[in-house]
Each structure stands twice: as structure tokens, then as C-alpha cells.
Write a structure and sequence with these properties.
By secondary structure, the protein is mostly beta strands. The protein has a single domain, classed as Beta-grasp domain (Ubiquitin-like (UB roll), Roll), CATH 3.10.20.30. Helices cover 8% and strands 30% of the residues. It has one helix and five strands; from the N terminus they run E-E-H-E-E-E. It has a five-stranded mixed beta sheet with strand order 2-1-5-3-4, with no helix packed on it. The termini are far apart. 9% of the residues are buried.
Amino acid sequence: MVKVNGEMLDIAGKSVKEYLLTTNYDMTRIAVEKNGEIVPKAQYDSTILKDDDSLEVVSFVGGG
């Protein structure tokens, strides 16, 4: 189980990219932090989630 934005999900074994493709996030307007460290977009496909990982996904919203 992986904690994503405070919710426990059964996504261990998937890459960050595989998880994100199952969501409605705009991949061009997010930042992902895994276990307290930013995951570069270039590493979404190669970063594999493991049991007890913690993932935070933050969306950027424009405004004025």
C-alpha cells in the first residue's frame, strides 16, 4: 500500500507514470514528491512505488 495525498492505495509495483495515467491530473501542471523528495518528470516512468512509500501530488493553478 502506498499513501497518496493522505489516502492509502494499492499501487505498489507501479511506476509514478502508471499511477498518474489512472488519474485526472494534468501531467504538465503537477509536481510529485516521493518520500519527501521531488521526482523529476523525466523519472516518472522509472520511479517504481513500493509498499509504505508516501506520494504527494500537487497541481499548479494559474490565476491573477
